[in-house]
Design a protein that fits this description.
Elements: H1 3-12, E1 15-20, H2 26-41, E2 45-49, E3 77-83, E4 101-108, E5 119-122, H3 129-140, H4 146-159, H5 170-182, H6 186-195, H7 199-209, E6 213-215, E7 220-225, H8 227-233, H9 244-248, E8 255-261, E9 266-273, H10 279-285, E10 289-290, E11 294-300, H11 303-329
Parallel strand pairs: 1-2, 1-3, 3-4, 4-5, 7-8
Antiparallel strand pairs: 6-7, 8-9, 9-11, 10-11
Helix pairs in contact: 1-3, 2-3, 2-4, 3-4, 4-5, 4-6
The protein binds manganese (II) ion.
Length: about 325
């Protein structure tokens, strides 16, 4: 990875926007805050921007109060560093990034990345962008303090599902270990990121689990989240984070799907797989993307139509990839 070149860019410039994708997760927020703190330590002007609501559970991250959406009349920088975002749309600046900055750096681990930067550093072997930020910080030779360590640790445990997913590697375990040596408390972060839930979130879980269905002999499990459910229990969409895993955990299941009805008659589709289905491929068929085991896309509503369209495409895709897999192993 070309971190020496990126380090040169960082040393040579003074003003930066550090940003990440909408519907931000722990990797997005943690990576943005870690890199922001590092750049500030180097004496740079840095504005950390996320163009969406940041879930309150990330408020414990050091300097999270600095995060804000883009302000058109105010924000300009020499360099914009985009983290964990496979395409420009997911950054949601609603204008050409060129009118905001001179140089775009695209640092990401999604293999579906559209290479929208002037400098593109993409590594789909990295567990999280937080891991890439770690190696960048090492290249920059900035000492990692507890604030930076907390952010990097959170980024990695989020994207590895608390070191449970197949993207867990010796490299990310070494980094986590170093962060714990610096003073990060795994129990504290685990409670903040994975456990603490609002009461409304648990009520919402009841509603969503009530829609659980199996298909294809139990290989597919799918559920839905409607606007009415959110209203009924007074929950926010972010309260459904992680629900899809209940479907994925069923023993027979290979692919779990969560259909989330949006305000604008669109339907977001979250996807997880366990062993052999590359869900990023099926997400790409619908203009989305992601990773082999976790991906997503958006379909036109209404919900019933989106479900039918998507599930029949998924079934067909699974039959085809099963054939391919059989051919490869023969
Ligand atoms: Mn990520």
């Amino acid at each position: 990875m070309d971190f020496p070149r990126l380090a040169d860019v960082i040393f040579k410039h003074n003003s930066f926007i550090v940003t990440s994708h909408i519907a931000p997760d722990g990797d997005a927020v943690g990576s943005v805050l870690a890199l922001t703190t590092v750049l500030e330590k180097l004496g740079k002007n840095v504005v950390p921007i996320i163009n969406d609501v940041v879930p309150a559970k990330y408020n414990f991250l050091p300097h999270s109060e600095k995060l804000r959406p883009y302000i058109p009349e105010k924000d300009r920088a020499e360099v914009m560093i985009c983290l964990d975002s496979g395409d420009v749309e997911r950054l949601d600046f609603k204008k050409d990034l060129r009118s905001i900055c001179e140089l775009i750096v695209n640092l990401d681990h999604h293999k579906s990345n559209s290479l929208y930067g002037d400098i593109n550093i993409i590594d789909d072997k990295s567990s999280a962008v937080g891991e890439m930020v770690y190696y960048l910080v090492k290249t920059l030779n900035v000492p990692i303090d507890i604030d930076i360590a907390t952010c990097i640790y959170t980024a990695i445990i989020t994207d590895t599902g608390s070191i449970k997913y197949s993207n867990t590697t010796p490299s990310c375990l070494k980094i986590l270990s170093e962060m714990v040596e610096i003073g990060v408390r795994p129990d504290f972060i685990s409670r903040e990121v994975f456990e603490k839930k609002s009461y409304a979130s648990i009520l919402l879980l009841k509603e969503v689990l009530g829609t659980l269905k199996l298909s294809e002999g139990g290989k597919i499990a799918y559920m839905e989240l409607t606007r009415d459910m959110l209203k009924k229990v007074g929950a926010k969409e972010e309260d459904a984070d992680g629900f899809i895993n209940f479907a994925r955990e069923i023993e027979s299941v290979e692919v779990a799907v969560l259909f989330r009805e949006q305000d604008n008659l669109k339907v977001k589709v979250g996807l997880r797989s366990n062993v052999w289905v590359d869900v990023s491929k099926i997400a790409e068929e619908f203009g989305g993307g992601g990773h082999a085991r976790a991906a997503g896309c958006t379909l036109e509503g209404p919900l019933e139509k989106a479900k039918n369209v998507f599930l029949s495409a998924l079934k067909e895709y699974m039959q085809t990839s099963k054939r391919d897999r059989g051919e490869r192993s023969n």
